[in-house]
Amino acid sequence: MDRQEEKTQIITNPSGRELKEHGSYRFPFLVSRERLSRYETGSFLWHWHTEIEFTLVTDGCMIYQINDSSISLNEGDALFGNSGTLHSAHRADEGDCRYISITFSPRLLYGYEGSLLQEKYVEPLIHNSGLAFLHFHGKDFFHGKENYYGKESFNSEESWHGAVIEGLRHITAVYEEKKPLYELRLQEELLHIWRLMLEHCCLDKACNSNGRDEKNYERIRRMITFIQENYQQKLELEDIARHVHLCKSECCRIFKRYMKESLFDYLLKYRIEQSLPDILAGEESLTEIALHSGFADSNYFSKVFHRLKGCSPRDYRKKIYHFKSVPEKSDPEKEIPWTTI
């Protein structure tokens, strides 16, 4: 039997920006094969990054949340996520979801700062809050599954959807094979996909930027930053609202509208996620961990933990150590905190 792997989660800085390197400065481009089962509870947390990201679902389905939209991505579908957008995702059902993530810096499209390509074809899109994403439908626009990946099977009306999806698959193959000149081939394919988006929809949508939405997303980022910097303290709604210069009701309304969850629920989820390293270390009592994570007492902490993770903190630790095939610590001093709570 295959050993189950340790779970992971998106690592961000206090502003919610992902810390993962997407390639290098010399070639800011990364392709990675992912699956939602690798993440805690089958989902990755809200985060953002300046890189552009394409997501291509290869098996299963997911619910992808980006800014204030929720998109159902099925096998064969792809999604363009714009630079700087807040996004998260979770499994659509009990099954796993496998997908390919393609992330790259906009610099690969325009070359150097101040270029005509940057000014005319890239910045109008990546700075447009009205264009957070594009959903490319896969199977819906193909005549037959047997020709699913062949260009000859594209429906003429939406052939550009298929062309983008085919381009993403080609990018993945080129990146993984790494044959001579592969960097040039990757850039060539990216420019082709970008041109398709410009030709078919983005030039019109680029004129529809909503300044109010842009301001609200900036407020949400500031709320997230404030929570992540102060989650260990006693936080009142009034504190968060004051930080973004809003009344309490408007603060809650904006967060709920765009993030599809309440501000309080986000705070609880973040506190639980931050408690996981201490739980796995097993060096503090549950009461100490609860207090360090911003909870007033261990009983409420355990209740919220069970609701979000489906088990108690103690059982969670046992499960993770079982996945890692690492025996539980036998030091009785380390076991005292976990048997007396």
TrEMBL record:
Residues 221-319 form the HTH araC/xylS-type domain. GO terms for molecular function: DNA-binding transcription factor activity; sequence-specific DNA binding. InterPro entries: AraC-bd, Homeodomain-like_sf, HTH_AraC, RmlC-like_jellyroll, RmlC_Cupin_sf, Tscrpt_reg_AraC-type_HTH. Keywords: DNA-binding, Transcription, Transcription regulation. PANTHER family: ARAC-FAMILY TRANSCRIPTIONAL REGULATOR (PTHR43280), HTH-TYPE TRANSCRIPTIONAL REGULATOR EXSA (PTHR43280:SF2). It comes from the Bacteria. Pfam families: AraC_binding (PF02311), HTH_18 (PF12833). This is AraC family transcriptional regulator.
